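Page 42, continued from yesterday. The earlier attempt failed because a stray header line got pasted into the input along with the sequence. Redoing it now with the clean sequence only.
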Amino acid sequence: MEEYNSYWGGIMSKQYDVVVIGGGAGGLFAASVANALGARTCIVEKTRLGGDCTWFGCVPSKALLKSAQVYRYINNLPKYGLKFKNNVDVDANKVMSHVRGIVDEIATHHPHEVFEKRGIDIIIGPPAFVDKTSIKVNHEILTGKKYILCTGSRPDIPPIEGLGEIDYLTNENIFELEALPKSMIVLGGGPVGLELSQAMNRLGVDVTIVKRSKGVLPRDDVDVVKVLEESLKKEGVKILTGKKTVKFKKTEKGVVVTLESSDGSKQEIEAERVLVATGRVPNLEGLALENAEVKYDQAGLEVNDYLQTTNPNIFACGDIASRYKFSHVAAYQASVSVRNALFKRVAWSKVDYSNVAWATFTDPEIAHLGQTEEEVVRSGKKYKVYTNEYTGSDRSVTDIEKQGFVKIITDNKGILLGAHIAGANAGEVIQGFLIAKSLKIPVTKLTRVMYIYPTLSELVKKTAAKPLLEKMDNPLIKLLLKILRKK
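This time it went through. C-alpha coordinates are written below.
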Protein backbone atom coordinates (compact mmCIF):
# COMPACT_ATOMS: atom_id res chain seq x y z
CA MET A 1 0.00 0.00 0.00
CA GLU A 2 1.31 3.43 -0.86
CA GLU A 3 1.65 5.71 2.15
CA TYR A 4 -0.65 8.34 0.62
CA ASN A 5 -2.99 7.38 -2.13
CA SER A 6 -6.03 9.66 -2.09
CA TYR A 7 -7.23 13.10 -1.09
CA TRP A 8 -9.88 14.22 1.40
CA GLY A 9 -10.74 17.90 1.27
CA GLY A 10 -7.34 18.66 -0.19
CA ILE A 11 -5.54 16.63 2.49
CA MET A 12 -3.68 13.47 1.59
CA SER A 13 -5.45 10.44 3.02
CA LYS A 14 -4.23 6.96 3.91
CA GLN A 15 -6.45 4.17 2.59
CA TYR A 16 -7.21 0.93 4.44
CA ASP A 17 -9.50 -2.04 3.97
CA VAL A 18 -10.15 -2.15 7.72
CA VAL A 19 -9.60 0.56 10.32
CA VAL A 20 -9.83 -0.75 13.89
CA ILE A 21 -10.47 1.93 16.50
CA GLY A 22 -9.35 0.76 19.93
CA GLY A 23 -6.29 -1.27 20.93
CA GLY A 24 -7.73 -3.42 23.69
CA ALA A 25 -8.62 -7.13 23.69
CA GLY A 26 -11.23 -6.81 20.93
CA GLY A 27 -9.26 -4.40 18.77
CA LEU A 28 -6.00 -6.32 18.83
CA PHE A 29 -7.79 -9.55 17.96
CA ALA A 30 -9.86 -7.92 15.21
CA ALA A 31 -6.82 -6.33 13.59
CA SER A 32 -4.83 -9.57 13.73
CA VAL A 33 -7.62 -11.58 12.10
CA ALA A 34 -8.28 -8.95 9.42
CA ASN A 35 -4.58 -8.80 8.59
CA ALA A 36 -4.36 -12.60 8.43
CA LEU A 37 -7.23 -12.57 5.93
CA GLY A 38 -5.26 -10.26 3.66
CA ALA A 39 -6.91 -6.95 4.50
CA ARG A 40 -4.88 -3.75 4.67
CA THR A 41 -5.33 -2.94 8.34
CA CYS A 42 -4.48 -0.31 10.91
CA ILE A 43 -5.18 0.15 14.62
CA VAL A 44 -6.01 3.60 15.93
CA GLU A 45 -5.58 3.77 19.71
CA LYS A 46 -6.15 6.91 21.77
CA THR A 47 -3.43 6.23 24.37
CA ARG A 48 -1.62 2.86 24.46
CA LEU A 49 -2.18 -0.73 23.36
CA GLY A 50 -3.54 -3.27 25.82
CA GLY A 51 -6.85 -1.78 26.83
CA ASP A 52 -8.55 -1.68 30.22
CA CYS A 53 -7.95 -5.38 30.88
CA THR A 54 -4.17 -5.03 30.74
CA TRP A 55 -3.76 -1.68 32.49
CA PHE A 56 -6.65 -1.41 34.94
CA GLY A 57 -8.68 -4.64 34.97
CA CYS A 58 -7.99 -8.34 34.60
CA VAL A 59 -4.20 -8.25 34.90
CA PRO A 60 -3.61 -5.95 37.91
CA SER A 61 -6.64 -7.21 39.82
CA LYS A 62 -5.59 -10.86 39.49
CA ALA A 63 -2.02 -10.01 40.51
CA LEU A 64 -3.40 -8.21 43.58
CA LEU A 65 -5.73 -11.10 44.41
CA LYS A 66 -2.82 -13.55 44.23
CA SER A 67 -0.72 -11.44 46.61
CA ALA A 68 -3.66 -11.23 49.01
CA GLN A 69 -4.14 -15.00 48.80
CA VAL A 70 -0.48 -15.65 49.60
CA TYR A 71 -0.70 -13.23 52.52
CA ARG A 72 -3.69 -15.19 53.82
CA TYR A 73 -1.79 -18.47 53.43
CA ILE A 74 1.03 -17.06 55.54
CA ASN A 75 -1.40 -16.06 58.27
CA ASN A 76 -2.95 -19.55 58.21
CA LEU A 77 0.16 -21.76 58.10
CA PRO A 78 -0.92 -23.97 61.05
CA LYS A 79 -3.95 -24.94 58.95
CA TYR A 80 -1.50 -26.66 56.59
CA GLY A 81 0.64 -28.23 59.31
CA LEU A 82 3.33 -25.56 59.01
CA LYS A 83 4.83 -22.85 61.18
CA PHE A 84 7.64 -20.31 61.08
CA LYS A 85 10.59 -20.85 63.39
CA ASN A 86 11.23 -17.10 63.33
CA ASN A 87 8.91 -14.13 62.97
CA VAL A 88 8.22 -12.97 59.43
CA ASP A 89 7.52 -9.30 58.76
CA VAL A 90 5.19 -8.91 55.79
CA ASP A 91 4.94 -5.38 54.34
CA ALA A 92 1.65 -5.26 52.46
CA ASN A 93 2.40 -1.73 51.27
CA LYS A 94 4.86 -3.18 48.75
CA VAL A 95 2.13 -5.11 46.97
CA MET A 96 1.07 -2.33 44.58
CA SER A 97 4.64 -1.99 43.32
CA HIS A 98 4.59 -5.72 42.61
CA VAL A 99 1.25 -5.40 40.79
CA ARG A 100 2.55 -2.60 38.59
CA GLY A 101 5.56 -4.76 37.71
CA ILE A 102 3.24 -7.57 36.58
CA VAL A 103 1.26 -5.12 34.44
CA ASP A 104 4.44 -3.85 32.79
CA GLU A 105 5.52 -7.43 32.02
CA ILE A 106 2.17 -8.36 30.47
CA ALA A 107 2.18 -5.13 28.45
CA THR A 108 5.34 -6.31 26.65
CA HIS A 109 3.29 -9.13 25.11
CA HIS A 110 1.77 -6.77 22.55
CA PRO A 111 4.39 -4.19 21.50
CA HIS A 112 3.90 -2.05 18.41
CA GLU A 113 6.71 -3.84 16.62
CA VAL A 114 4.91 -7.19 16.63
CA PHE A 115 1.91 -5.79 14.78
CA GLU A 116 3.90 -3.53 12.48
CA LYS A 117 6.07 -6.48 11.46
CA ARG A 118 2.89 -8.21 10.27
CA GLY A 119 1.98 -5.16 8.22
CA ILE A 120 -0.52 -3.62 10.65
CA ASP A 121 -0.08 0.14 11.10
CA ILE A 122 -0.32 1.47 14.67
CA ILE A 123 -1.48 5.06 15.04
CA ILE A 124 -1.64 6.62 18.53
CA GLY A 125 -3.97 9.58 18.96
CA PRO A 126 -7.64 10.53 19.51
CA PRO A 127 -9.73 9.72 16.41
CA ALA A 128 -12.85 11.53 15.21
CA PHE A 129 -15.07 10.78 12.23
CA VAL A 130 -15.24 13.51 9.61
CA ASP A 131 -17.75 11.67 7.42
CA LYS A 132 -19.14 8.17 6.84
CA THR A 133 -15.81 6.72 5.65
CA SER A 134 -13.02 8.89 7.07
CA ILE A 135 -11.51 9.83 10.42
CA LYS A 136 -9.03 12.46 11.50
CA VAL A 137 -6.13 11.51 13.79
CA ASN A 138 -3.26 13.83 14.69
CA HIS A 139 -4.00 16.19 11.76
CA GLU A 140 -4.01 13.16 9.43
CA ILE A 141 -6.93 11.71 7.47
CA LEU A 142 -7.52 7.94 7.34
CA THR A 143 -10.12 6.40 5.06
CA GLY A 144 -11.42 2.88 5.55
CA LYS A 145 -13.68 0.67 3.49
CA LYS A 146 -14.78 -0.92 6.77
CA TYR A 147 -14.43 0.11 10.43
CA ILE A 148 -14.49 -1.95 13.61
CA LEU A 149 -15.05 0.07 16.77
CA CYS A 150 -13.64 -1.42 19.99
CA THR A 151 -13.15 1.56 22.30
CA GLY A 152 -14.12 -0.16 25.55
CA SER A 153 -15.54 1.43 28.70
CA ARG A 154 -14.58 3.36 31.81
CA PRO A 155 -15.86 3.60 35.41
CA ASP A 156 -19.35 5.04 35.78
CA ILE A 157 -19.19 7.81 38.39
CA PRO A 158 -22.61 8.43 39.97
CA PRO A 159 -23.81 12.03 40.54
CA ILE A 160 -23.67 12.00 44.36
CA GLU A 161 -23.28 15.17 46.40
CA GLY A 162 -19.67 15.79 47.41
CA LEU A 163 -18.17 12.91 45.45
CA GLY A 164 -16.35 15.26 43.08
CA GLU A 165 -14.76 17.02 46.04
CA ILE A 166 -12.96 13.98 47.44
CA ASP A 167 -9.99 12.04 46.09
CA TYR A 168 -11.95 8.89 45.26
CA LEU A 169 -10.48 5.72 43.78
CA THR A 170 -11.60 3.63 40.80
CA ASN A 171 -10.11 0.56 39.15
CA GLU A 172 -8.12 3.01 36.98
CA ASN A 173 -6.12 4.62 39.79
CA ILE A 174 -6.24 2.25 42.76
CA PHE A 175 -3.19 0.37 41.51
CA GLU A 176 -1.18 3.60 41.64
CA LEU A 177 -1.34 3.64 45.45
CA GLU A 178 2.08 3.66 47.11
CA ALA A 179 0.68 2.67 50.51
CA LEU A 180 -2.55 0.91 51.45
CA PRO A 181 -5.16 2.90 53.41
CA LYS A 182 -6.23 1.77 56.86
CA SER A 183 -9.89 1.71 55.85
CA MET A 184 -11.95 1.85 52.68
CA ILE A 185 -15.61 2.22 51.69
CA VAL A 186 -16.46 0.44 48.44
CA LEU A 187 -19.48 1.61 46.46
CA GLY A 188 -20.88 -1.26 44.42
CA GLY A 189 -21.27 -5.00 44.79
CA GLY A 190 -20.28 -6.20 41.34
CA PRO A 191 -17.20 -8.26 40.37
CA VAL A 192 -14.80 -5.30 40.49
CA GLY A 193 -16.00 -4.14 43.90
CA LEU A 194 -15.96 -7.60 45.44
CA GLU A 195 -12.57 -8.67 44.08
CA LEU A 196 -10.86 -5.49 45.23
CA SER A 197 -12.72 -5.54 48.57
CA GLN A 198 -11.55 -9.04 49.44
CA ALA A 199 -7.98 -8.37 48.32
CA MET A 200 -7.73 -5.15 50.33
CA ASN A 201 -9.32 -6.74 53.38
CA ARG A 202 -6.87 -9.64 53.32
CA LEU A 203 -3.99 -7.17 53.13
CA GLY A 204 -5.14 -5.45 56.31
CA VAL A 205 -7.53 -2.76 55.06
CA ASP A 206 -10.82 -2.38 56.98
CA VAL A 207 -13.40 -2.67 54.16
CA THR A 208 -17.09 -1.78 54.07
CA ILE A 209 -19.12 -2.53 50.93
CA VAL A 210 -22.16 -0.32 50.31
CA LYS A 211 -24.81 -1.55 47.86
CA ARG A 212 -28.05 0.18 46.97
CA SER A 213 -29.86 -3.05 46.04
CA LYS A 214 -30.54 -5.98 48.36
CA GLY A 215 -27.60 -8.18 47.38
CA VAL A 216 -24.24 -8.39 45.66
CA LEU A 217 -23.55 -9.94 42.24
CA PRO A 218 -27.18 -9.57 41.10
CA ARG A 219 -26.56 -11.36 37.77
CA ASP A 220 -25.34 -14.54 39.45
CA ASP A 221 -27.28 -17.41 40.98
CA VAL A 222 -28.41 -16.50 44.51
CA ASP A 223 -27.34 -19.84 45.99
CA VAL A 224 -23.70 -19.54 44.94
CA VAL A 225 -23.60 -15.84 45.88
CA LYS A 226 -24.64 -16.74 49.44
CA VAL A 227 -21.50 -18.85 49.79
CA LEU A 228 -19.31 -15.91 48.82
CA GLU A 229 -21.17 -13.42 51.02
CA GLU A 230 -20.79 -15.66 54.05
CA SER A 231 -17.07 -16.10 53.32
CA LEU A 232 -16.49 -12.35 52.96
CA LYS A 233 -18.30 -11.56 56.19
CA LYS A 234 -16.38 -14.29 58.02
CA GLU A 235 -13.13 -12.70 56.86
CA GLY A 236 -14.24 -9.34 58.24
CA VAL A 237 -15.66 -7.52 55.20
CA LYS A 238 -18.73 -5.51 56.21
CA ILE A 239 -21.55 -5.57 53.63
CA LEU A 240 -24.30 -2.95 53.84
CA THR A 241 -27.10 -3.61 51.34
CA GLY A 242 -30.25 -1.64 50.66
CA LYS A 243 -28.37 1.57 51.40
CA LYS A 244 -28.48 4.64 49.13
CA THR A 245 -25.34 6.78 49.22
CA VAL A 246 -26.52 10.41 49.39
CA LYS A 247 -23.51 12.49 50.44
CA PHE A 248 -19.72 12.59 50.79
CA LYS A 249 -17.84 14.92 53.09
CA LYS A 250 -14.08 15.28 53.30
CA THR A 251 -12.56 15.22 56.80
CA GLU A 252 -9.08 15.42 58.31
CA LYS A 253 -9.04 11.62 58.71
CA GLY A 254 -10.60 10.80 55.35
CA VAL A 255 -14.20 10.77 54.22
CA VAL A 256 -17.60 10.63 55.90
CA VAL A 257 -20.34 8.99 53.82
CA THR A 258 -24.03 9.52 54.49
CA LEU A 259 -26.27 6.54 53.73
CA GLU A 260 -30.06 6.41 53.53
CA SER A 261 -32.24 3.34 54.11
CA SER A 262 -35.53 2.62 52.36
CA ASP A 263 -37.45 3.94 55.39
CA GLY A 264 -35.69 7.30 55.11
CA SER A 265 -33.41 6.84 58.11
CA LYS A 266 -29.80 7.94 57.70
CA GLN A 267 -26.44 6.88 59.05
CA GLU A 268 -22.87 8.01 58.63
CA ILE A 269 -19.81 5.84 58.14
CA GLU A 270 -16.20 6.96 57.88
CA ALA A 271 -13.12 5.65 56.12
CA GLU A 272 -9.75 6.85 54.88
CA ARG A 273 -10.53 6.24 51.18
CA VAL A 274 -13.53 5.55 48.92
CA LEU A 275 -13.49 3.16 45.95
CA VAL A 276 -16.19 3.73 43.32
CA ALA A 277 -17.14 0.49 41.54
CA THR A 278 -20.70 1.18 40.43
CA GLY A 279 -20.54 -0.01 36.84
CA ARG A 280 -19.15 0.97 33.46
CA VAL A 281 -20.01 3.47 30.71
CA PRO A 282 -18.96 3.19 27.03
CA ASN A 283 -16.02 5.19 25.69
CA LEU A 284 -17.67 7.07 22.82
CA GLU A 285 -16.85 10.69 23.57
CA GLY A 286 -14.83 12.53 20.96
CA LEU A 287 -15.52 10.05 18.14
CA ALA A 288 -18.00 12.39 16.42
CA LEU A 289 -20.18 9.41 15.53
CA GLU A 290 -22.88 11.71 14.21
CA ASN A 291 -20.64 12.51 11.25
CA ALA A 292 -20.57 8.80 10.41
CA GLU A 293 -24.36 8.41 10.93
CA VAL A 294 -23.81 5.93 13.77
CA LYS A 295 -26.58 5.90 16.38
CA TYR A 296 -25.79 5.43 20.07
CA ASP A 297 -27.04 6.20 23.56
CA GLN A 298 -25.75 6.04 27.14
CA ALA A 299 -25.64 2.23 27.00
CA GLY A 300 -23.51 2.09 23.85
CA LEU A 301 -23.83 1.69 20.11
CA GLU A 302 -26.95 0.54 18.32
CA VAL A 303 -25.93 -2.72 16.63
CA ASN A 304 -27.84 -5.56 14.97
CA ASP A 305 -27.31 -9.30 15.35
CA TYR A 306 -24.32 -9.05 13.01
CA LEU A 307 -22.68 -6.35 15.18
CA GLN A 308 -23.31 -3.88 12.37
CA THR A 309 -24.05 -0.29 13.39
CA THR A 310 -26.50 2.06 11.67
CA ASN A 311 -23.66 2.78 9.25
CA PRO A 312 -23.51 -0.48 7.23
CA ASN A 313 -19.72 -0.23 6.85
CA ILE A 314 -19.03 0.18 10.57
CA PHE A 315 -19.09 -2.76 12.99
CA ALA A 316 -18.45 -2.88 16.73
CA CYS A 317 -17.35 -5.21 19.48
CA GLY A 318 -16.62 -5.19 23.20
CA ASP A 319 -18.08 -3.06 25.97
CA ILE A 320 -19.58 -0.49 23.59
CA ALA A 321 -21.67 -3.15 21.85
CA SER A 322 -22.77 -5.58 24.56
CA ARG A 323 -23.97 -5.85 28.15
CA TYR A 324 -21.41 -8.62 28.64
CA LYS A 325 -18.34 -6.57 29.48
CA PHE A 326 -15.64 -9.26 29.44
CA SER A 327 -12.43 -9.57 27.44
CA HIS A 328 -13.33 -13.04 26.15
CA VAL A 329 -16.69 -11.76 24.90
CA ALA A 330 -14.94 -8.85 23.16
CA ALA A 331 -12.58 -11.27 21.40
CA TYR A 332 -15.54 -13.43 20.31
CA GLN A 333 -17.38 -10.37 18.99
CA ALA A 334 -14.22 -9.24 17.20
CA SER A 335 -14.13 -12.50 15.24
CA VAL A 336 -17.77 -12.02 14.22
CA SER A 337 -17.18 -8.37 13.29
CA VAL A 338 -14.18 -9.14 11.08
CA ARG A 339 -15.97 -11.94 9.31
CA ASN A 340 -19.00 -9.78 8.57
CA ALA A 341 -16.90 -6.78 7.58
CA LEU A 342 -14.75 -8.66 5.05
CA PHE A 343 -16.96 -11.42 3.67
CA LYS A 344 -20.02 -11.36 1.45
CA ARG A 345 -23.41 -11.41 3.18
CA VAL A 346 -23.89 -15.12 2.49
CA ALA A 347 -20.95 -15.87 4.81
CA TRP A 348 -22.00 -13.57 7.66
CA SER A 349 -22.64 -14.91 11.15
CA LYS A 350 -24.85 -13.68 13.98
CA VAL A 351 -23.67 -13.22 17.54
CA ASP A 352 -24.87 -15.87 19.97
CA TYR A 353 -24.78 -15.04 23.69
CA SER A 354 -26.55 -18.18 24.86
CA ASN A 355 -23.31 -19.77 26.02
CA VAL A 356 -21.61 -16.80 27.67
CA ALA A 357 -19.76 -17.79 30.82
CA TRP A 358 -17.87 -15.68 33.33
CA ALA A 359 -16.14 -15.86 36.68
CA THR A 360 -15.65 -13.55 39.63
CA PHE A 361 -12.16 -14.29 40.97
CA THR A 362 -12.83 -13.95 44.66
CA ASP A 363 -12.16 -16.71 47.17
CA PRO A 364 -14.23 -18.77 46.75
CA GLU A 365 -14.55 -18.06 43.03
CA ILE A 366 -17.99 -17.66 41.49
CA ALA A 367 -18.54 -19.08 37.99
CA HIS A 368 -21.63 -18.51 35.85
CA LEU A 369 -22.94 -20.19 32.69
CA GLY A 370 -26.33 -19.76 31.07
CA GLN A 371 -29.50 -19.11 33.03
CA THR A 372 -29.85 -18.86 36.79
CA GLU A 373 -32.60 -20.82 38.49
CA GLU A 374 -34.59 -17.61 38.96
CA GLU A 375 -34.39 -16.89 35.23
CA VAL A 376 -35.51 -20.42 34.36
CA VAL A 377 -38.46 -20.10 36.72
CA ARG A 378 -39.51 -16.83 35.08
CA SER A 379 -39.28 -18.45 31.65
CA GLY A 380 -41.84 -21.05 32.63
CA LYS A 381 -39.70 -23.98 31.47
CA LYS A 382 -39.80 -27.32 33.22
CA TYR A 383 -36.40 -27.98 34.76
CA LYS A 384 -34.37 -30.02 37.20
CA VAL A 385 -31.58 -28.99 39.55
CA TYR A 386 -28.62 -31.13 40.59
CA THR A 387 -25.96 -30.12 43.10
CA ASN A 388 -22.68 -31.52 44.36
CA GLU A 389 -20.68 -30.27 47.33
CA TYR A 390 -16.96 -29.56 46.97
CA THR A 391 -16.38 -32.06 49.77
CA GLY A 392 -17.17 -34.72 47.16
CA SER A 393 -13.78 -34.03 45.58
CA ASP A 394 -10.70 -35.61 47.15
CA ARG A 395 -8.63 -32.74 45.75
CA SER A 396 -10.70 -30.20 47.64
CA VAL A 397 -9.87 -32.11 50.83
CA THR A 398 -6.11 -32.33 50.16
CA ASP A 399 -6.01 -28.59 49.34
CA ILE A 400 -8.28 -27.67 52.26
CA GLU A 401 -10.65 -26.03 49.79
CA LYS A 402 -13.83 -27.78 50.89
CA GLN A 403 -16.06 -24.70 50.82
CA GLY A 404 -18.43 -24.51 47.88
CA PHE A 405 -20.66 -26.51 45.57
CA VAL A 406 -21.65 -27.12 41.95
CA LYS A 407 -25.19 -26.48 40.74
CA ILE A 408 -26.51 -27.40 37.32
CA ILE A 409 -29.95 -26.79 35.81
CA THR A 410 -31.24 -28.98 32.97
CA ASP A 411 -34.41 -29.32 30.96
CA ASN A 412 -36.37 -32.57 30.99
CA LYS A 413 -34.12 -33.99 28.26
CA GLY A 414 -30.96 -33.39 30.25
CA ILE A 415 -29.73 -30.42 28.19
CA LEU A 416 -27.98 -27.78 30.28
CA LEU A 417 -29.85 -24.56 30.86
CA GLY A 418 -27.31 -23.24 33.33
CA ALA A 419 -24.38 -24.14 35.55
CA HIS A 420 -23.16 -22.21 38.59
CA ILE A 421 -20.24 -22.88 40.89
CA ALA A 422 -18.95 -21.43 44.12
CA GLY A 423 -15.57 -22.80 45.11
CA ALA A 424 -11.85 -22.97 44.44
CA ASN A 425 -10.94 -22.63 40.75
CA ALA A 426 -14.62 -22.42 39.78
CA GLY A 427 -13.66 -20.58 36.61
CA GLU A 428 -11.63 -23.58 35.51
CA VAL A 429 -14.09 -26.25 36.62
CA ILE A 430 -17.05 -24.73 34.76
CA GLN A 431 -15.31 -25.13 31.38
CA GLY A 432 -16.47 -28.75 31.19
CA PHE A 433 -20.09 -27.68 31.45
CA LEU A 434 -19.42 -24.89 28.92
CA ILE A 435 -18.39 -27.49 26.33
CA ALA A 436 -21.54 -29.55 26.92
CA LYS A 437 -23.82 -26.53 26.69
CA SER A 438 -22.11 -25.13 23.59
CA LEU A 439 -22.37 -28.49 21.79
CA LYS A 440 -25.96 -28.95 23.03
CA ILE A 441 -25.27 -32.46 24.27
CA PRO A 442 -26.99 -34.06 27.28
CA VAL A 443 -24.98 -33.31 30.40
CA THR A 444 -24.83 -37.04 31.19
CA LYS A 445 -22.43 -37.52 28.25
CA LEU A 446 -19.77 -35.79 30.35
CA THR A 447 -19.68 -38.89 32.54
CA ARG A 448 -18.15 -40.91 29.68
CA VAL A 449 -14.92 -38.91 29.86
CA MET A 450 -11.96 -40.24 31.84
CA TYR A 451 -11.07 -37.39 34.19
CA ILE A 452 -7.66 -37.08 35.77
CA TYR A 453 -7.53 -37.97 39.47
CA PRO A 454 -7.27 -36.11 41.77
CA THR A 455 -8.57 -32.89 40.25
CA LEU A 456 -11.41 -30.52 41.04
CA SER A 457 -12.70 -31.14 37.50
CA GLU A 458 -13.94 -34.52 38.71
CA LEU A 459 -16.78 -32.49 40.19
CA VAL A 460 -18.04 -32.03 36.63
CA LYS A 461 -18.32 -35.79 36.16
CA LYS A 462 -19.83 -36.40 39.59
CA THR A 463 -22.46 -33.70 39.10
CA ALA A 464 -23.24 -34.84 35.55
CA ALA A 465 -23.80 -38.34 36.94
CA LYS A 466 -26.65 -37.19 39.16
CA PRO A 467 -29.29 -37.38 36.38
CA LEU A 468 -28.09 -40.92 35.56
CA LEU A 469 -28.43 -41.99 39.17
CA GLU A 470 -31.91 -40.48 39.19
CA LYS A 471 -32.89 -42.57 36.17
CA MET A 472 -31.63 -45.70 37.89
CA ASP A 473 -34.52 -45.38 40.35
CA ASN A 474 -37.03 -45.71 37.53
CA PRO A 475 -38.79 -49.12 37.85
CA LEU A 476 -38.64 -49.74 34.08
CA ILE A 477 -34.87 -49.06 34.02
CA LYS A 478 -34.37 -51.36 36.98
CA LEU A 479 -36.33 -54.09 35.19
CA LEU A 480 -34.31 -53.66 32.00
CA LEU A 481 -31.02 -53.85 33.88
CA LYS A 482 -32.21 -56.96 35.65
CA ILE A 483 -33.00 -58.60 32.31
CA LEU A 484 -29.61 -57.63 30.86
CA ARG A 485 -27.57 -58.91 33.80
CA LYS A 486 -25.94 -62.31 33.52
CA LYS A 487 -27.21 -64.91 35.93
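Notes: The longest helix spans residues 58-75.
Reminder to self: strip header lines before submitting.
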